[in-house]
Each structure stands twice: as C-alpha cells, then as structure tokens.
Amino acid sequence: MIEVKNVNKSFGDNHVLKDFNAAFEPGRVNLIIGQSGSGKSVLTKCIVGLMEIDGGQILFDGNDFSKMNRLERKEIRKEIGMLFQGSALFDSLTVEENIMFPLTMFTKMSNKEMLDRANFCLDRVNLEGRNKLYPAECSGGMQKRIAIARAIAMNPKYLFCDEPNSGLDPSTSIVIDNLIKEITYEYNMTTIVITHDMNSVIEIGDSIVFVYGGRSWWYGNKEDIIKTDNPEINDFVYASQFMKNLKNKLKQEGM
Amino acid sequence: MSYINSIGKYFGMLRYVFSRPERLKVYHTRTFNEIEIIGLNSIGIVAILSVFIGAVISMQTAANMTSPLLPKYTIGYITRSSTILEFSPTIISLILAGKVGSNIASEIGTMKVTEQIDALEIMGVNSLSFLILPKTIAAMFFFPFLIIFSMGLSLVGGYVAVTATGLSSHEEYVFGIRSFFLVSDITYALFKTVCFAFIIVTVSSFFGYYTKGGALDVGKSSTQAVVWSSICILLTNFILTQLILL
Ligand SMILES: Nc1ncnc2c1ncn2[C@@H]1O[C@H](COP(=O)(O)OP(=O)(O)OP(=O)(O)O)[C@@H](O)[C@H]1O
Ligand SMILES: [Mg+2]
User: Fold this and answer.
1) In which domain, by residue range, is A148 found?
2) Are residues A150 and A28 part of one domain?
C-alpha cells in the first residue's frame, strides 16, 4: 500500500502538484489519468524519490519515504519495478543483458537461472528470441516492452508504469494490459499505471485517480468513470464531439 | 557563488563515488572494459603525438644551440628532461582530457537525459559509484603506462629527427639522454599522471552526471568537461611543480 498525503511539488514558479492525495492498494491496478503536462510523471517520480517533494508525505506500507536515509530508500527501491515514459533502456547492453541487469546486481542467481528468467519475461511481452538485439535496433514499441520485461524481472512488490502502451498498436496494447493485470493479481503487487488510453482505463482500471491542475481531482473505478457527472473528467474522457454526443444519447436512453 | 556551489557539489559527488560497491564482480568487469575504452583506445593518438613532439623538441633545441661552448649532448639531455618532466605527463594528459573527458561526459550525460541514470537509481544501484568508480580506477591504473610509452616514443622521435638531419650523432644523443638522470623525475612524472587521470575522469563525470535538459545540453556538458579538466590539470601541475621540484 502506497499513500500520498498532501504532497506539494514546484519547479520555480511552476506549482505542479498541489496538496495531492491518493492511496494505491496492493493486488489491484491503480491508474493515474490526466491531461498531458498535468504532473503525472512528476507524481510518480516523487513517489519513488527521484524528485524530492516540497511538502507532504509518501508512505510505503506506513513508512514515510521522504524521511528515510539513502540506505533505507535503497532497500525499498529493490522492491520497485519501474517503466519510464521514455523506456530508459541501457544503450550499451543487449536486450537480454538489460533484463538480467537487476538480477546480476542484486541476486545470487547463476547465469543459467538469470537467462531463464530473462527469457520468461521476454516471452510475456511477446518478444521471445530478440535477446541479442541492442535497444537502438528495436522499434519504440519494442523498447517499451523490453522495459516492461526489465521492470518485472525482479518480481517487484511495487510496479510503476508510465504510459505502458503509448506507441503500441491496439492488439499489443491489450497484451501488455493483460500482462499488467495478471501479474498484479498473481503476485499481489501494488501497481500504479499512468495512461491516456481509455481502452486501458476500461480494461484494467480497478481504481482511478484523475489529476487535474496538479490536484487529485476525482477518484473512482472503471464503472464510475463512465457514469460520473464531474465536468472536468467528462471533458477528458469524452474529448471528441462524437463521444460527447454518444454520452448524451446514452443518458437520454437512461443508461 | 555558483563556482563555490559546484565545488561543494563535486566533493559531495566524490563521497558517493567512493562508497562501497554493490557487487564487486560487476565492478571488476566494468573496470576491465573501461581500461579498454579509456586506455587501450588512446594508444594510437598518444603514439603519434609523442613521436612528433619528441622530434620537434630535439630539432628546436639543436637549432637554438648557437654557442659552440655548449656540448652536442645537450640536445639529448634537454629532449629527455622536457619530455619526462612536462611534455609526456602534462601535455599528453591535456590531450587525453580532450579525448577521454568529452567521451565520458557525453556518455554519462546521455544516460542522464534519457533517464538511464534514474533507472539505475530506482533499481537501488548507487549510480555515481557504478558509473564513475570503474572509470576512475581504470584511468589511474592505465594512464601511467600510456605516459611511460609516450616518454619512450618521444625520445625515439627525437633520435630519428636529429640523426636523420645530421644535427647530432648517435653517440652524442644517447650520451645526452643518459646524463644526469634521476629516477625521481620519472616517479614525479608518474605521480602527476595519476593525479591528472583522477581529475580528468571525475571532473568530466561531474559535468556529465549533472547535465540537465536534452541532447543540446549533453554537448555543452561535454565542452565544459574538457575546458574544466584542462584548467584543473594546469592548476594542479603548477601546484605540484612548486611543491615537489622547488
Ligand atoms: N525536471 C523538470 N524540471 C522542471 N519542470 C518540470 C520537470 N519535469 C516536469 N516539469 C514540469 O512539470 C509539469 C508536469 O510534467 P509531467 O511530466 O509530470 O507531465 P505528465 O502529466 O506526465 O504529461 P504527459 O502525459 O505528457 O507525460 C510540466 O509543466 C513540466 O513542465
Ligand atoms: Mg508523463
């Protein structure tokens, strides 16, 4: 369980997060949605300590992360898997070495065991056999999937995914969504997914927080989000005129 | 004020660079890789520079020896002294600051702006130590060999230049090289080299690691890395010369 309490974060005059509150529970897929530039990536970076917060609390299972020293943070971080918005694969390592990297650093596995684990993770993102490629030789969507494989290699307790299916075609997107859902339920992970993709929201959104103007504007789940009357969230979900008309029609018909 | 801040930040960085590594075996492998990247790949440029500068120093000395009172072996003697004391350790280190320093700063800077360093941190790796320590050890270990190699080649370059042009004979040059020789000169030169190696790697890494922004800023960091490591080398050289030779 990760709790975010009254978190504030500014860059100079740019007040990005304002008294932000949210709770992310284990065993379910927690989504963060919101417009581009609303502060979703900054929020996740604050949670994992890549950015220092200006005020408030971040609690990992009740322990205040912002008050921890370097070593205590390190212990928590070994249990975090993170997919960055830009993939952040290590250029100098092959696909297989990228996925094995956290295993080499932090486990006592033999080479064979690490390779098996890497292959298993590659399988799950539909990239079997691409072991020896370098990140530069992979497409954007492939890089994203390799980064997901790397994030889950250590079987993390907390999984953060910043836009896991941006740049992926609809069918691969569903594979990734399902993967995230499966491992979350299977290993009782605390999963936090940032997304723009309404398909994913409907598909995997066990709990949703909508970020608007740097605030935690709305909470709910995938059923609530379709029915809500909150104007900001409706503008976000039903962005196109076509969708707005559809929503009105549904409403008239009493759905 | 911002200079003082940066200096503080630099020493703060060093504290993390020299903290206990997570996995010694991984650091081992990385150090050997870095010896290849930083050291072995610089052999070519060091060789070419050394031969030519050795040749020029000896010819310049010969050309300026207008007084008949000066013995001919002075050419060999001066070539040796200037090579061992200044040319090889200092000038070659400055060249390496350009080659190795820009390479390190752009590598680490790129990792920074593409969030690869964040990815390391999030896994719980001490990125400063992981990236910088192997490079520092590799350079401090290997640069002395490069410099000894450079000293040798400069003397050969000088020899070929003066004997081929008839400015000095084989016997005179070799006699000059061997006269008034102090082993402590070499020790001093190698000590300087180790200091310069440390400066090149840590200063360049510093500029790379604290790059903010995008690809353009990586370029800027890499220029700054070269400029500042060169300045630091010159300053350190001045101080060491004062302390040790005088
Ligand atoms: N390192 C930084 N320095 C300064 N400002 C930043 C930094 N990172 C983000 N910001 C600012 O914070 C705000 C939120 O950025 P963030 O990356 O969190 O947006 P986002 O919600 O993830 O958008 P997107 O969906 O496009 O990824 C933006 O206004 C951005 O300019
Ligand atoms: Mg983002």
Assistant:
1) 93-155
2) no
Residues A137 and A109 in one domain: yes
CA of A162 from ligand 2 middle (Å) equals: 7
Which residues contact ligand 1 via a Cβ below 6 A?
A 11, 14, 16, 34, 36-42, 85
Query: Do A16 and A40 belong together in one domain?
Result: yes
- Minimum distance, in Å, between the CA of residue B34 and any CA atom of chain A: 13
What's the CATH code of the domain at A213?
Answer: 3.40.50.300
Using the beta-carbon criterion (under 8 Å), do A75 and B124 form an inter-chain contact? Answer: yes
pLDDT digits (tens, 9 = 90+) for A75-95: 899 899 999 998 999 999 999
pLDDT of residue B86: 87
Alpha helices in chain B (DSSP H): 2-17, 24-34, 43-64, 74-82, 92-96, 102-113, 116-123, 127-165, 170-178, 183-209, 215-240
Label residues B68-81 b or e (16+ Cβ within 10 Å = b).
eeeebbbbbbbbbb
Segment B193-246, tens digit of pLDDT: 999 999 999 999 999 999 999 999 999 999 999 999 999 999 999 999 888 866
Q: pTM for the complete prediction?
A: 0.90
Q: Of A10, A13, A20, A38, which is best to mutate to test ligand 1, by the most ligand atoms within 8 angstroms of its C-beta?
A: A38
Residue A120 lies in a domain: yes
Residue A85 lies in a domain: no
